Amino acid sequence: MPLAYFHGEGILFSFLIHSFFALIGGAVLIYGLKKYKSRQGAVVAVGYVAVTLVITLLSQRFNGLLETVALGLTVPWRMVVPCYNLDNSCTLSLGVSFVCALVNAALLYFLVVWLTRVK
What is the structure's pLDDT at 110? Predict the structure, then answer.
């Protein structure tokens, strides 16, 4: 067992890095909502977060294909946000899923805004 787990630094660092990604994703999304005021983008962003969280909850209950879908919905940020489980397994938790979905939702919001303004 690494010394960081014994003293709790790994858990603290995990909380801080997840909080950092959540703040960045939330701030970018709020900035986009205030600046562009796109209703379609907001619906897509909120829907994406909701679908990701529901599928993550269902995948924790029923393993299999839903777990693959939940992991796919949180790419690429799931690979950036580290996991610090004591047994070194990186299962997708609801918190990590929310953080990754929030960052992806911010990107989707700006994509929808850009696509609706191009027409």
Answer: 96
